[in-house]
What we know:
Fe-coproporphyrin III binds at residues 130, 144-148, 171, 184, 222. With 248 residues, the chain is α+β, with helices and mostly antiparallel strands.
Amino acid sequence: MSEAVQTLEGWYALHDFRTINWSSWKYVSDEERARSLDELRSFLEEWKAIGESKTGSTVVYSIVGQKADIVFMHLRETLEELNELETAFNKTTFAQHTIPVYSYVSVVELSSYMAKPGVDPMQDPEIVARLKPQLPQTKHICFYPMNKRRSGNDNWYMLGMEERRSMMRSHGMIGRSYAGRVKQIITGSVGLDDWEWGVTLFSDDALTFKKLVYEMRFDEVSARYGDFGDFYVGNRLDAEKFENMLQV
Ligand code: 76R
């Protein structure tokens, strides 16, 4: 059996994708719509306060295309908190005008392929901060789930540690050449959701997603061992933009 790489886990993640039921949203009275918006506003404020108190992080983006209209990405200390917040949100009148279309449950993960030997990573404040990150407020988000292939001769999980490490080094080098332009949050989901990882990328330039993902396609670890799910791409919604979007 090959040696499993050690992983560090941080906050749990919920990516909650919804479409807006525009016909019901338009149909309700102005009073009900105003009440829904008040409720939504107070949720957004609560989520902001959680970020400020560093007990979690939430960002909201609109999604381009028909797969969804919006995504809430939440990071929290426990699965229970994620569950409570989705249930609380589902009870709002605004949520009655949304249709859940996709969700993804995972946990922020750092693997130790690049770790310095003999150093306790949890003593490194930079690593601890990466496990419990404040989500970036970039203009754009890109999310997709992925697996490492287990098929015939291309089975990631049958490779030895050194071979995997050297491929991950090459992966990391490509990634680092995008430093400052894109921020990745890798969340692990083996045993939690249908794919093995969620990849969430943040950038102020959506074209950077295309360039980075394309370049990585030629790198062995993605070219040979990467299997990918659906891609979701979107634009940041602050409270004001969200309300503008909901104007009818
Ligand atoms: O430098 C480091 O300390 C981290 C090196 C690193 C690891 C271990 C790293 C860097 N990644 C790691 C792990 Mn990544 N990453 C992806 C994708 O579309 C594709 O082809 C793949 C999707 C992108 C775009 C991306 C970007 N990475 C992982 C893992 C876990 C694998 C495992 O454990 O087997 C996955 C699934 C994955 C996928 N990667 C980077 C990036 C970028 C931009 C970087 C540099 C970021 C940085 O240095 O902060």
